[in-house]
Amino acid sequence: MAAVEIDLGKLPFDIDFHPSDHLVAAGLITGDLLLYRYNADSPAQKLLEVKAHCESCRTVRFINEGRAIVTGSPDCSILATDIETGSEIVRLENSHGAAVNRIVNLTESSIASGDDEGCIKVWDTRQRSCSHSFNAHEEYISDITFAADSMKLLATSGDGSLSVCNLRSSKIQTRSEFSEEELLSVVIMKNGRKVICGTQSGTMLLYSWGFFKDCSDRFVDLSPNSIDALLKLDEDRVITGCENGLISLVGILPNKIIQPIGEHSEYPVERLAFSHDRKYLGSASHDHLLKLWDLNELVQESEDGVKNDSSAEDSDNDGMDVDDNIPKSSKGSKKKNVNKGPDPGSSNNFFAEL
């Protein structure tokens, strides 16, 4: 069912689609940023290849309505690149005190970044500065998602916990108990009532909103393969990318594997993303391939697979637990060896030239 295959030549760490055009960007282990124009009827056309970072390019996001691409790296820098010219708009050399591992879009004027030592920062593109900083975890930030209605950031970490950061109060609202395994991915589903986390063991942990201390349910059918990527299709279905190369459509409450979508041989699938029109699902893997899967057939085949099932919901209410006493991990903290720079705090002028 793969419509387009793009051979990136090297290991990709992240992909992102342009918000309104048929463009897709990839960040590589070499530090290169690639930009392609894709079309179902012809081979993808490489538009841009830029040496964005001296170390790997771990994370990639389009910003400013797609006029620029932001990338993050273990060199601790965040770079904004013009998609038309490939030229550097601005580079913040010490955006974090550790390797930048994840960048996600929040609103039209803000992004969040997470590093290898558990710090999350929010960048305001209008105020042109770092607006929030949270020391939320003890190890690397693996994924971040945003609950826009309540202005809360949810993040997963290699320390085995899920955090909730409140942008209104600029405080870490709560953090889950420590799991015995790394949490690798996170999505919000069921109209905000459930938070789903993918883990290193292949178990999916389901948390009820407001009850984040411990999960309310576990789904083990994807074990023992780690769930490296989660992408919400709708409120009842999520797409998973696993280390065995399989991409699957999974129903949530009732929990079941609906159908396989595709595969990257036996190579881990670490990133999933939708094209702007949701016609394509993009997947990136260790086989050096970026695959674009046509979702039309997938949605038609599975639209009756999972429906809202009130009997499958648990009885948790919508109250939010607030705990200012953030628990400490009982596990040893194994920090990654990275070049550190000074923490620039809220004085960063990252978007001054955007």
UniProtKB/TrEMBL annotation:
Keyword hit for Transmembrane helix: no
WD repeat ranges per the UniProt record: 269-296
Keywords: Developmental protein, Nucleus, Repeat, WD repeat
Bias kind Polar residues: ranges: 345-354
Pfam families with a match to the protein in the record: WDR55
Record region (Disordered): 303-354
Keyword Phosphoprotein: no
Family stated for the protein in its record: Belongs to the WD repeat WDR55 family.
Cellular localization per UniProt: Nucleus
Biased segments, Acidic residues type: 311-324
Primary localisation category: nucleus
Protein's recorded name: WD repeat-containing protein 55
